[in-house]
């Protein structure tokens, strides 16, 4: 059985150990030591990384009572190695795990919901709860959690007997066997946990709920904790300053400035739609009734407007074709006719002018990469 130094001292960054076993696997070499400070993946907490001697520790997993280190080179059995953790990575996980305990414990204490899922991802910590929370509820929990951080409380670890455990009110996400390890944050949480934690809540740093979404019958909340929260704030502060400069308003007024800008854009869009409608009306009005062929080129019509104009022109002409675009980028087209087999016509048109598209009578649509003069010559001769 591997001796787990991280339970005796979660701040142990370096250690010496003896190699008990080393075997080659597909992704590297599985190394088992007599003792380790490397935490194996489990309980929502990712595995530690670092080095064993000259080898990189890529992953750490549990196999029964053993801790297996996946390394990029082998070691002779019986040799002594020096282990060194990637401490920045571990410290962040300790902050995030301890912060999650506080947040989840307060949710349980205030609303009675269970934590049914927990994951420390690359971008944030996600926690799933068995019931719904409003934005006001989340804000309340966040404030209480940060109060616990600022109070710099000692985080306690205990191993109660089976009798003591029966009388203890604690959280747990699964049925437990054998010795149970209890993590207590006074006033916030009592929870069975196998992860690593900081000694005092003041080491956690800020706890911020950044988003939430419905998940199963409850809610999933994304948290930024500790250094990750500070980095998230720095990035968002930088973005806010850039927006503030672009809008020429103080940072605290950016939301109102964006609302006004969106209103202006909506008004401009409505004006453009009205102007475009007048343009289409003019084209239709200028087309004589009963015209044999109506061919129209416009540069700035969207697909809906192209179809609309072609359909309206087909009411006045026997054959209507509308093209939008330019000779450099090509044209989008719609061709309509109630009297011509436009499906067959479209095949000949595409073959002759490097076009793509099709459809069924009485309307086809597609794109063509050809000069306007070539298109007109094909359509009008």
From TrEMBL:
<dbReference type="GO" id="GO:0005524">
    <property type="term" value="F:ATP binding"/>
</dbReference>
<dbReference type="GO" id="GO:0002161">
    <property type="term" value="F:aminoacyl-tRNA deacylase activity"/>
</dbReference>
<protein>
    <submittedName>
        <fullName>Alanyl-tRNA editing protein</fullName>
    </submittedName>
</protein>
<dbReference type="Pfam" id="PF07973">
    <property type="entry name" value="tRNA_SAD"/>
</dbReference>
<dbReference type="GO" id="GO:0003676">
    <property type="term" value="F:nucleic acid binding"/>
</dbReference>
<dbReference type="InterPro" id="IPR009000">
    <property type="entry name" value="Transl_B-barrel_sf"/>
</dbReference>
<dbReference type="InterPro" id="IPR012947">
    <property type="entry name" value="tRNA_SAD"/>
</dbReference>
<dbReference type="GO" id="GO:0046872">
    <property type="term" value="F:metal ion binding"/>
</dbReference>
<dbReference type="InterPro" id="IPR051335">
    <property type="entry name" value="Alanyl-tRNA_Editing_Enzymes"/>
</dbReference>
<dbReference type="InterPro" id="IPR018163">
    <property type="entry name" value="Thr/Ala-tRNA-synth_IIc_edit"/>
</dbReference>
<feature type="domain" description="Alanyl-transfer RNA synthetases family profile">
    <location>
        <begin position="1"/>
        <end position="220"/>
    </location>
</feature>
<dbReference type="InterPro" id="IPR018164">
    <property type="entry name" value="Ala-tRNA-synth_IIc_N"/>
</dbReference>
<dbReference type="InterPro" id="IPR018165">
    <property type="entry name" value="Ala-tRNA-synth_IIc_core"/>
</dbReference>
<keyword id="KW-0862">Zinc</keyword>
<dbReference type="Pfam" id="PF02272">
    <property type="entry name" value="DHHA1"/>
</dbReference>
<dbReference type="GO" id="GO:0005737">
    <property type="term" value="C:cytoplasm"/>
</dbReference>
<dbReference type="GO" id="GO:0004813">
    <property type="term" value="F:alanine-tRNA ligase activity"/>
</dbReference>
<dbReference type="InterPro" id="IPR003156">
    <property type="entry name" value="DHHA1_dom"/>
</dbReference>
<dbReference type="Pfam" id="PF01411">
    <property type="entry name" value="tRNA-synt_2c"/>
</dbReference>
<keyword id="KW-0479">Metal-binding</keyword>
<dbReference type="GO" id="GO:0006419">
    <property type="term" value="P:alanyl-tRNA aminoacylation"/>
</dbReference>
């Amino acid at each position: 059985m591997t001796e787990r130094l991280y339970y005796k001292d979660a701040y142990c960054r370096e250690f010496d150990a003896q190699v008990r076993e080393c075997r080659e696997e597909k992704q590297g070499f599985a190394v088992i030591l007599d003792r380790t400070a490397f935490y194996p993946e489990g309980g929502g907490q990712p595995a530690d990384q670092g080095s064993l001697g000259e080898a990189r520790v890529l992953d750490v997993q549990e196999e029964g009572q053993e801790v297996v280190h996946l390394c990029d080179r082998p070691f002779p059995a019986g040799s002594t190695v020096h282990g060194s953790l990637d401490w920045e990575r571990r410290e962040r996980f300790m902050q995030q795990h301890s912060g999650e305990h506080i947040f989840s414990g307060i949710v349980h204490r205030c609303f009675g919901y269970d934590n049914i899922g927990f994951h420390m991802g690359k971008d944030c910590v996600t926690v799933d709860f068995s019931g719904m929370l409003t934005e006001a509820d989340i804000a309340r929990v966040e404030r209480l959690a940060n109060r616990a951080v600022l109070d710099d409380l000692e985080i306690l670890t205990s191993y109660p007997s089976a009798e003591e455990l029966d009388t203890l009110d604690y959280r747990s996400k699964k049925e437990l066997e054998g010795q149970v390890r209890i993590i207590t944050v006074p006033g916030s949480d009592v929870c069975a946990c196998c992860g690593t934690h900081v000694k005092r809540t003041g080491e956690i740093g800020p706890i911020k709920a950044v988003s939430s979404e419905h998940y199963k019958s409850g809610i999933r909340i994304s948290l930024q904790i500790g250094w990750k929260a500070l980095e998230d704030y720095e990035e968002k502060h930088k973005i806010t300053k850039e927006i503030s400069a672009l809008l020429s308003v103080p940072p605290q007024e950016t939301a109102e400035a964006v609302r006004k800008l969106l209103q202006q854009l909506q008004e401009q869009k409505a004006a453009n739609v009205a102007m475009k409608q007048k343009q289409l009306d003019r084209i239709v009005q200028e087309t004589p009734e009963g015209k044999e062929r109506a061919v129209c080129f416009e540069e700035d019509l969207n697909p809906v407007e192209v179809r609309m104009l072609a359909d309206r022109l087909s009411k006045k002409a026997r054959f209507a074709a509308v093209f939008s675009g330019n000779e450099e980028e090509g044209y989008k087209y719609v061709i309509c006719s109630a009297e011509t087999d436009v499906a067959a016509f479209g095949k000949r048109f595409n073959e002759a002018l490097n076009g793509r598209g099709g459809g069924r009578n009485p309307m086809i649509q597609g794109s063509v990469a050809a000069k306007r003069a070539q298109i007109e010559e094909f359509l009008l001769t």
